[in-house]
Amino acid sequence: MTESRPETSRPDTSHPEAVRSEGLRPETRVVHVPQPAVEGSRPIAMPIYQTSGFAFDDPAVMADAMGRSDGPFVYGRYTNPTVRSLEQAVAGLEGGAAAIATGSGMGAINTVLLGLLKPGDHLIAQTSLYGGTAAMINDLVGRFGIAVTYVPENDPAALRAAARPETRLVYLETISNPMTLVADLPGMCAAARELGIVSVVDNTFATGLLCRPIEHGADIVVHSTTKYLSGHTDVVGGIAVFASAELHEKVWHFAIELGASADPFAAWLSLRGMQTLALRMERHCSNARHLAGRLAAHPAVSAVHWPGLPSHPSHELAGKLLSGFGGVLSFDLAGGRPAGEKFMSSVRLALLAPSLGGVETLVLHPATTSHRSLSADELARNGIGEGTVRVAVGIEHPEDLWADLSGALA
């Protein structure tokens, strides 16, 4: 094979990249592709910066960038323009100072827990928790010797009584999964702040549209962006939003070591989904109201768990704290587990699938899926029975949804 010769045609010097490529052989030019700058206009949609790293002209600037969360972009594990756009969008929605996007909701939760806890520390968590979070806390107890005390989500006095000198975190959920209990965020976060304890709130079910925990005193808010923020069942992601830049900086240094970083394409999908969040949440909530009322009147159902119902234990608090009651509900079937299994195999429009927050309605059996890692005692403590069914209500026509659920109940 003969050696390729440098191109001799005069380069177009109207763009810096043309100058840089002057005299290069074809094999080199196909590697170093032009990157035109956008001048005089701007893209309407945030572009996907699908690159693992960024190049520098000054070594000192690069060295400085690698130690700062707010510096120039340097490496994809640190952040990326598309990822930072998502971080800024969610931080703005939540009223936070800064955010860290991650590869999953559990990535966000683990980044916060592992970044702020060490062996010998004590964690206070609300009793009713998402199964993945509960499993992670159990792992922290067994693996790192971190102590945990569970308290009701609406009892600041119990939080104060449980606090120890080594207590570092209080962990809450705005709306609990799957029993939809609403945490007393003003009371619980105020108690934590009085004691010098960092408060963390999972706001996935409510989103920043229905509730902004930082406004009620929370220090950190976490989300699974997989759910309502992205909203179309096509991405897995998470994010942690921080009320203070100082706390963000502390956790960010651990986050880049942990490596649970968000992917630019997943961040872009989440950004695209967020643009219709307000429209979708309005329909999720109205559909949930429609179904909750009808389920409560059905003879096969012994209880419905949705904070918009006057019979729900969190109804009064939810009315004060939330601008809407959410799109997730659960209900208990009078026939127990056999009835639950029959119901799951009988739905036709709703999908038997994990996750929530997408445009389609999903159903699952928490005891054997989302909360399968919990013992029988832990399930009982969370109020989850053998006949409990969770419904993540989508945006379909409510009468079509009710026809499907009522047919399965029959």
Give a structural overview:
α7 (156-162) packs parallel to α8 (185-194). The protein has helices at 16-20, 26-29, 59-65, 81-94, 105-116, 131-144, 156-162, 185-194, 207-210, 245-258, 264-274, 277-296, 315-321, 336-346, 376-381, 398-409; strands spanning 98-102, 122-126, 147-151, 167-173, 198-202, 220-223, 238-242, 301-305, 328-333, 351-352, 362-364, 388-392. The longest helix is centred in the last third of the chain and has 20 residues, at 277-296. Residues 4-16 have low confidence and may be disordered. With 410 residues, the chain is α/β, with parallel strands linked by helices. It contains 16 helices and twelve strands. The protein folds into three domains: 1-44, no CATH class; 67-274, Type I PLP-dependent aspartate aminotransferase-like (Major domain) (Aspartate Aminotransferase, domain 2); 277-409, Aspartate Aminotransferase, domain 1 (Alpha-Beta Complex), CATH 3.90.1150.10. The strands form two sheets. The chain has a seven-stranded mixed beta sheet, sandwiched between helices. It has a five-stranded mixed beta sheet with strand order 8-9-12-11-10. Its cofactor is pyridoxal 5'-phosphate. Keywords: Aminotransferase, Pyridoxal phosphate, Transferase. Residues 1-28 are annotated as: Disordered. Its EC number is 4.4.1.2. One of its GO terms (cellular component) is cytoplasm.
Keywords:
Aspartate Aminotransferase, domain 2; 410 residues; 5-stranded mixed sheet; 16 helices; alpha/beta; 12 strands; single chain; Aspartate Aminotransferase, domain 1; 7-stranded mixed sheet
